[in-house]
Every structure is written in structure tokens, then in C-alpha cells.
Amino acid sequence: MALNTTCSFTLPGWLEPFVAGWDAPLASAEQRMALAVALAAENVKHHTGGPFGAIVIEEHSNRLLGVGVNLVTAVELSMAHAEMVAVSLAQGASGHWNLGAGKEVQLVTSCEPCAMCFGAVPWSGVRSIVWGACREDAEAAGFDEGDKPADWQESLERRGITTRGGVLRREAARVLARYASRSGAIYHPENSRGES
Amino acid sequence: MALNTTCSFTLPGWLEPFVAGWDAPLASAEQRMALAVALAAENVKHHTGGPFGAIVIEEHSNRLLGVGVNLVTAVELSMAHAEMVAVSLAQGASGHWNLGAGKEVQLVTSCEPCAMCFGAVPWSGVRSIVWGACREDAEAAGFDEGDKPADWQESLERRGITTRGGVLRREAARVLARYASRSGAIYHPENSRGES
User: Fold this and answer.
1) Active-site entry in A83, A112, A145, A171
2) Of the listed B30, B42, B58, B83, which one is catalytic?
3) Nearest CA in chain A to B67
4) Is A83 part of the annotated catalytic residue set?
5) DSSP readout, B14-31?
6) Cβ of B147 and A149 within 8 Å?
7) What SS3 string covers B132-177?
8) How much is the pTM?
9) I need a surface site. Which of A33, A145, A162, B56 has the fewest CB within 10 A?
10) Could you report the predicted ipTM of this complex, rounded to two decimals?
């Protein structure tokens, strides 16, 4: 059998016009989170993946470098969490794996990062991370956040990465709860709800 | 500025013929590790990335589902560790994000998984993971493994994922040490050696 040698994923078609039409400012953490949460909600509405959205933004210019939504079921890649998608697209756009080369870049995600995304943050070069919903909100909706070190937030801080959680938490958690109430796929190997 | 909407990466050209020419059996953990370590060594030799290789293999048939090498600097994606590449390509080949759907799949990696790859393992559906070099070997060569839970190996076992480390450790560690002795790029945001 020939080996598969290329991996590729693309954002759903609704996303680019949606972001282009987003004319609210992106200066504060709350304003940035409003976009990340809106992306999560739109992703559910369009049935293109799980209830998670993320953006990568240049701190001082407020310039969007990358956006992402959860695409696990849409593109059949378990790593395609919103954070990984946003970071990878930002790296593609900037032409460099290190987003911290010469600029201060922030990752804003609608939900606390899972174990994989937590581990990916220091490798990406982002200098700060902001999240909305917390682990408890994700777990209440049936999601598994994985096993992070007990001091995961301090671990990022020790590496010079600023952390701030619970920004627009209620709004972000509402997207998760709404998804769960509609029995959306929980894409987890142990949970057949993800097999649709 | 238009958003980047597609992310794509491709294995280096040497890899497919190299694997096609690998005619040793892949039945035991040691035989599988020999290929993962050889991929790591070839990746260094061809200057296509860091000294890490991985394969995803169907347990009972010994069929290769995916192969990967570290491509961080080659494709400018911080997530492109050998394990993530091999798992993503295997998922692309099988058409499903869940590699555990109906089969027993093993991830064999030349080095203990970093924090990101550890977190990614449970989401991928693999049922077992085997690694060669250990954290200490990677750190001795200048690599940062990230912060995993103290009981990360037990964490995988609790999730039903079998773990076995140190397989062909000496051979795997030798590839890391050789890379370090030649001042290969350490692609880490805090380390300018990665900026070449």
C-alpha cells in the first residue's frame, strides 16, 4: 500500500466571510473573546464541528493572524482542535513556526485548553493565552479535557506565557451547554457519540 | 488582509522510497522501533527536521498506517512533531479521526512523547504507545519535553492505552546525541538556535 504523504485541512466556507463581517473592535480580551465564542457558536450552527473557537492575534496591532474552530469530525483529524487550527494557520500565514519571533502574539480560545493544546502552547511562540469556559464547563457538556499537570497554569507562567481564564465564561459555557443539549457528537475514542 | 484558510504539510521526498525499501519485519516492538529510529536518523541526514521519527501500525496485521518525522522547521508548524505527523497521516489514510475504530493500533516513536504529543495520544484512538529514547536523553541533547503530569504514563494506562518505554533506547538516544553534537536546530521559541 502506498503511504499517505500529505496532510491538509481547510476552514469551513462560512468562516472567512463571517470573520470579514466582524466589525467590532479586537482591542480588549473581552472583545477578542467575543469573536472566539461567536466562532464556536457558528461552528455548531453550521454543523462543521465541535463548540470551540479560537483566534491568534498580534497584541499591539490587534491584527488577526489566524482563526480556528474545532474541525475534528469535519476533517477527520483528532488534533484539529480550535487552538491547533488557529495556531497552525497563523504559522502558515507568517511563514514561521515561531509566532513569537519579533512580535507579541496572543491565543484567545473559547474554552480552557485540553492536555494536547496546553502542551502545544509553549512550542508555538505565543506570549499569552486567554480562555473563556473552564474545565468544569467542558466536562459538564461531556467533553474530556485530558490530564494536565496540576499546576498547568503556573507551568505556562514559568515559561513566560501570561494566562487569563474565565473571560466571558458564561457566554462561552452557554455554547457548550447548548451543543450538549442537542446531543452533538463528542469525538472521543471511548464515546460512540463521536462516530457519526 | 485575507485569512489563511488552509494548512498542509507533506513528508520529505526521501521518506516514501526509504520506507518502501525497508524489508525487515515489523512484528515486534523492537523491529518497529528500528524503523522509527532509522527515520529519525535519515531525517537528520537529509536536513529535513529534528531527530525524531514515528510510525503508526496495526497491531495484528503489522500494516503501516502512517509514518512521520519531525517537520517543525521544514514545514514551519510547531505542532509537526513526528508523532503528530504519523497520527495525522494515518487518520487521513483511514478516513477517520479515530484510529481505534475497529482495530488495535500502536504508535511507535523514537523518543518519549512531549507534553503536546502525550496529550494528543488519547484523542487519536491508538491503543498502545512504545517509545525509545527517554526524557533524559532528549534533555541531554538540548530538547525541552514540556510539562507533563507526574503520572503521565499511568494516566495513559488508566485510559486503556498500553505504554512501554526504553525500547532500543541506546540506538534512539544516539541519534539525539549525534544531532546535538552537530549543533542542529533546537526549535524552541526561547532558543535562537531554532531560528536558522
Assistant:
1) A83
2) B83
3) A3
4) yes
5) THHHHHHT--S---SHHH
6) yes
7) EECHHHHHHCCCCCCCCCCCHHHHHHHCCCEEECCCCHHHHHHHHH
8) 0.94
9) A162
10) 0.94
- Give the pLDDT band of residue B182 (cuts 50, 70, 90): confident
Q: Do B76 and A66 touch (CB under 8 A)?
A: no
* Nearest-5° Cα angle at A83, A170 to B111: 135
Residues across chain A? 196
pLDDT at A192 over 50: no
Paired strand residues for A45 = none
- Residues in chain B with CB shorter than 8 Å from the CB of A95 are 76
| pLDDT-based confidence at residue B1 (cuts at 50, 70, 90) | low
- The number of C-alpha atoms within 13 Å of B52 and in the hemisphere containing its C-beta is 32
Q: What is the mean pLDDT of chain B?
A: 94
Q: Residue range A134-148: average pLDDT? A: 97
Sign of CA dihedral A90, A96, A102, A106: positive
Find the CB nearest A92 among B4, B92, B189: B4
How far apart are alpha carbons A102 and A125 in whole angstroms? 10
Contact B118 A117 (CB under 8 A): no
